[in-house]
Amino acid sequence: xxxxxxxxxxxESLSVAAVVTAVRPLADEVxxxxxxxxxxxxxxxxxxxxxxxxxxxNLGYGAALISGSHEAxxxxxxxxxxxxxxxxxxPSQISxxxxxxxxxxxxxxxxxxxxxxVVNISWLRLITLKLAIYFTWFLSGIKLTDAHNGFRAxxxxxxxxxxxxQSRMAFSSEIVDEVARQKLHYQEVPVKVRYTxxxxxxxxxxxxxxxxxxxxxxxxKFLS
Length: 224
Fold this sequence. Notes:
The protein is α/β, with parallel strands linked by helices. It is built from nine helices and seven strands, in the order βαβαβαβαβαβααβαα.
């Protein structure tokens, strides 16, 4: 199976090259989506060996993943892995996240820091993540242990079935909602998430505008 890792990146010049370098031996290809960065994220990712897509302006986390995942499909991906650019995930765990799909057990895999390990998380982030579990459960009917983890994998067929539109952080809830709507088989696997001063400052999940996420989700689900 061809595994392609998609990495959304916005002003990640301090970390993206190291992340790409670490991920490349563990995947068939790496696609970095430079989401309107004002620094040299794109050139550094390219030099590290990634295929780079560029948004001319910042469109958001979800938009970057949608662009990158469509490109992965066009390049023949059997499995698409979503991975962050700030270094908070462990590249060595890509095989664990993709294994249930490789073995034809499920179609979608969600990484869970609460089944695995979370290092140096702030109390505010912890509360927000725990509330997100119940919010996502209410909307989708799926109760995950970690509803907003950016480390996930989907099969080619699963991605093609899902209708994803959220351009920003609400994408993480929307993909769970689509798994429920399409009745896709899914599984959570333990992963490690390590927060550093850099990742807290630069992660696209760094400071969630929680009310904006809720508004986006409700608009897409009930009003659009």
